[in-house]
Each structure stands twice: as structure tokens, then as C-alpha cells.
Amino acid sequence: MHILFVCTGNTCRSPMAAALARAELDARGLSAQVSVDSCGLAAYPGEPASPNAVTAAAELGGALESHRAKPATPELLESADRIVCMSQSHAAAIAAALPELSGRISVFDPPIPDPFGGDLATYRRTAEALRSAILKLFSEWSLIPE
């Protein structure tokens, strides 16, 4: 299974989600069966993750030091078995552009607010919310026991 996390700029939420998902998969010995990646609908290619995102993810076991932003291309989106969006607007934009992918798209519930420009405490709250939402999805998908 290949999971793609999507946000706007690919410097905060979606890379944090990918890093935290990798950490959870690694801890459960599932990284050989499940791969994760991230992208942004308005990403500037090559941008590093936000420093606060790097710190907040690291505190929960996620590594973002080498992350570089990448835009959501049709090829990248089509390669994913599951496309997990941070908000309904991300999901709607993908479904409008590539309606054939609609069945692969899900949105975190509740949606994850963008911490861009926030302080470290804001990023820590975002990382915790992402980790909880990821564990919930993994359970729903039967990747991990409830």
C-alpha cells in the first residue's frame, strides 16, 4: 500500500503526517508493506520543512531534516493507493482535477488546521493531532489493531 498525505505547501502538515506515519509503521514492523509520501497543492519545489515542524515531528519520533517540498502532480497522486488530505478543500481540488481518484481520497476528521507561521506550541498541537488521526486511520484500514 502507498499512502500520500496532501496539504497546501508541503512544509508543515503533510510532511509531518508522512514522518509520523513512517515512525508508527516502523515501530510496528510494517514499513515493508506500507510506504508513505507527501506533497502540496501549492508547494514550491525544494523548500525544506518548517523548523517548528521538524522539531515537533522529531519529538514524536518523526524525521524531517531531509524533507524537501514537492507539488502534487497527477503522476504522484495516481501512484497512491490512499490519498489523505488535511482539509476538505484539498480533497475537493484533487477530486475536481482527477475525478477518477475520488475513491482513494479521504480527509482527516476533524480536519487538521494549518500551523504555518505559528509558534512551536502550535506545531506540537498539530503533530499530536496528526499522530492521533493517523492511528485512527491505520486502525480503520486494519493496519494496526484497535
- Assign a percent range to the helix content: 40-55%
Biggest beta-sheet profile: 4 strands, parallel
Strand content: 5-15%
| Strand segment count | 4
Oligomeric form of this entry? single chain
Residue-averaged pLDDT = 97
Distance between the terminal alpha carbons, to the nearest Å? 19 Å
> Given the C-alpha coordinates, what overall shape results?
globular
Give the strand order of the largest sheet, numbering strands 1, 2, ... along the chain. Answer: 2-1-3-4
Low-confidence stretches: none
Order of helices and strands: EHEHHEHEH
Gyration radius over CA:
14 Å
Number of helices: 5
Structural class: alpha/beta
Helix/strand layout:
Elements: E1 2-7, H1 13-27, E2 35-40, H2 51-59, H3 74-78, E3 82-85, H4 88-97, E4 105-107, H5 120-140
Parallel strand pairs: 1-2, 1-3, 3-4
Write up this protein.
It is built from five helices and four strands. It is an alpha/beta fold and 146 residues long. The protein has a four-stranded parallel beta sheet, with helices on both faces. It is globular, with a radius of gyration of 14 Å. The mean pLDDT is 97.
Can you summarize this structure?
By secondary structure, this protein is α/β, with parallel strands linked by helices. It contains five helices and four strands; from the N terminus they run E-H-E-H-H-E-H-E-H.
